[in-house]
Structures are given as C-alpha cells and as structure tokens.
Write a structure and sequence with these properties.
Blueprint: H1 2-9, H2 13-21, H3 32-41, H4 67-76, H5 104-115, E1 120-125, E2 128-133, H6 167-178, E3 203-205, H7 206-209, H8 216-223, E4 227-234, H9 241-260, E5 266-272, E6 282-285, E7 292-293, E8 299-302, E9 307-314, E10 321-327, E11 334-335, E12 338-340, H10 345-354, H11 371-380
Biased composition (Low complexity): 137-146
Keywords: Glycoprotein
Protein name: AEBP1 protein
C-alpha cells in the first residue's frame, strides 16, 4: 500500500497506469483475531499455527460453501447444465441461516464479494513458497465408469484431481506470479518443509498438493466471476524485522505483474438497441464451459489466454449475439461489445403461462367451441 501511494505521487508511469485503470481492493488481514494470537505467542516454536483459526474456532481456509461437491454430484446425476448450473452456483440455503456454523469473517467476505464484481484475486499466505490454484477440492471417485483420460504433458494421471474449465488460464496467472518472484522457481533447493511439489515451476493445483473443500478459491470461482488463487509468499510465516526488506524485494515485482493480468482477455458492454445496459447478461466463451455475467452497468471482464475466441452474449428476453474476439500477448484487454435485440420469447412464455403452460388449441373455423374452450378464450380476452 505504501509503495503504490509513494510511487504514484513520484510519477512512476507503471504504478500510475495501474492505479488509474484498476480498481484495487486490499485487505490487510482476513483473520485479525487469529493473527494477534499468533503474534503474541511468537513464531520461533511454530506458534504461528495458533492464528490458523478465528477466535470462535473456525478454520477460514475451509469455511466457505463447498460448491464443488454439489457441482460434481449434479454432474453424476446428469443434471448439469439443464437443471443445475456449472457457474454462478447459488449458496445453499442452510448456509445462510443465522445459526449456521459460519464465521463472521466468512460472512463479511461473502457479502463483500456480492457487492463488488471482482475479476481477479489472490489471498496472501505464508509458511510455503508457491502459488496454488483451483480446484482445491478433490473429486471423489465416480460411481459410473468413465472413458480413459488421456495423459497430460504437465499433470500426473490422478483421477482425484479435477481441473477447472479455466485450467490453462489459472496456470498462466500462477506462473505470472511465480516467474517474477526472485526465488520461488529455485526449486533445486526443495520445498520449504518437504520435497518440491511444483514440478520445478513454483505453482501447483490445490487438489493435487493439499486437497480440502470449502476454500475461498473454489467458492470464488463457482459463485462469482472472480478467478482467485492462493499465493504463499515465503517459508517463514513471521520473518524477523531484518528479513522483511528482502521478502518485500522477493515479492514486489510479482505483486505488480499479477495485478496487471486483470487487463488480459476481453471486456466490454452489453446493451439493448436503445443503448441501455443489460445487467446479468451471460457471456459465453466457446470451448470454456464456465460463463461470466455482466455487472449492474452492463459491463463485463473475462480473463483469457492469447488466442481467438467465439464469444456470445445472452440475456433473458433478448436474442443472443455472437462474434469473434481476439486476445493478444500484450497487456490490454480487447474491447468486445454486444448489442442485443428484444425477443418475442418473453411474450410467448406469458401467453403459455396464461394457458397453464399447455399447448394452445387451434380453433378450427366452422366447428363449435366447447364450453372449456369458450371459458379459456374469455379468460385470455
């Protein structure tokens, strides 16, 4: 925070561009009570673990709704996507009850995410030196036999690891941080506590490394538009004062580079033919089974790797619009706007609802109407 403010005032063009073109939200601590407990106990003997939980005893790392398990269960029952969505999955009702086992910090973060159309996020942690990306939850073995999965060039053949539709994009984002870090990719030294788990790249999928359900990363991906990753800044949770400057230098370029990635992909407005914005319109990218929605002003952002994409915009009561959008290697999102024309499907649904969602019987000229047909005609008129 100090760096951004000072460099902005000093006229640093990179920081000025970042601050003026990006809405940046910074949370100093997600768990301030736990942090105070750990700080008071000290870190020499591993007492930082005391700060893993809140004062009420909740583990914030696993306190968010487990939407991944709900999605996979629906996929097993063949309910996706016609009856169960694969994106913007609603929060279970029981999770919203006042007596639910949910930390106040978790509720606050969820409410904050509902109010802001976040695009990219990172939760900063310590005790390791790597970047972890979703899914964090491990998919249970399928009850139905599946076709053999072809081996990937960079992933082990692990049936319990389920990749997100944005797997390649998450890897790009994770590498953008790890590669700019001064020591994160020096994996010849091994990991912080065990052998290197990142295949010498400084990045790992959460489910492959440390599987757990109900994480902020999985919740953010399945409930909002935001792509969230976990960044483990260094091996020591509480570096000594003499080490802080070097830790800052290790991570400074990575933090800037990561924030700049929010401007990679496509962005634009979805409006009607009169120029009025359309909120909650769905942006569909061909080949990626994960959609985003427009904000209240009809604007949207979609982080994508370089390439050419077939993109469509859809909204209730409007005809869909499709166009080809190209994403380039240089930082700077491609403008991709959509203008939707009104559809008559809304009126058709209204008429069918008046008829009890049953087909409207065609009246044949010269044939007398039945009492029921006469009554329905009178009701419609």
């Amino acid at each position: 925070m100090q760096f951004l403010c000072k460099e902005y005032q000093d006229g640093n063009p990179r920081v000025r561009s970042l601050v003026t073109e990006t809405r940046i939200h910074l949370v100093p601590s997600l768990n301030p009570d736990g942090y105070e407990l750990a700080r008071e106990a000290g870190s020499e003997l591993g007492n930082w673990a005391l700060g893993h939980w809140t004062e009420e005893g909740y583990d914030l790392f696993e306190n968010f709704p487990d939407l991944a398990s709900r999605l996979w269960a629906a996929e097993e029952r063949k309910l996706v996507p016609h009856r169960f969505p694969s994106h913007h999955i609603p929060i279970p009702q029981h999770y919203l009850e006042e007596d639910a086992t949910v930390a106040v910090e978790t509720r606050a973060v969820m409410a904050w995410m509902e109010k802001n159309p976040f695009v990219l996020g990172a939760n900063l942690q310590g005790g390791e030196k790597l970047v972890s990306y979703p899914f964090d939850a491990a998919r249970p073995p399928s009850e139905t036999p599946a076709a053999p999965r072809p081996p990937d060039d960079y992933e082990d053949d692990n049936p319990e690891v389920h990749e997100t539709p944005d797997h390649a994009i998450f890897r790009w984002l994770a590498i953008s941080y790890a590669s700019a870090h001064l020591t994160m990719t020096e994996t010849f030294r091994g990991g912080c506590h065990t052998q290197d788990v990142t295949d010498s790249m400084g990045i790992v999928q959460g489910a492959k490394w440390r599987p757990r359900a109900g994480t902020l990363n999985d919740f953010s991906y399945l409930h909002t538009n935001c792509l969230e990753l976990s960044v483990y800044l260094g091996c020591d949770k509480f570096p000594h004062e003499s080490e802080l400057q070097q830790e800052w230098e290790n991570n400074k370029e990575s933090l800037l580079t990561f924030m700049e990635q929010v401007h990679r992909g496509i962005k634009g407005l979805v409006t009607d033919q009169q120029g009025e914005p359309i909120a909650n319109a769905t942006i569909v990218v061909g080949g990626i089974k994960h959609n985003v929605k427009t904000a209240s002003g009809g604007d949207y952002w979609r982080i994508l790797n370089p390439g050419e994409y077939r993109v469509s915009a859809r909204a209730e009561g409007y005809n869909p619009s499709v166009k080809t959008c190209s994403v380039f290697y240089d930082i700077g999102a491609t403008q991709c706007n959509f203008v939707l024309s009104r559809s008559n499907w809304k009126r058709i649904r209204e008429i069918m609802a008046m008829n009890g969602n049953r087909p409207i019987r065609r009246i044949v000229p010269g044939r007398p109407m039945t009492p029921r047909e006469r009554l329905r005609l009178r009701q419609r008129l």
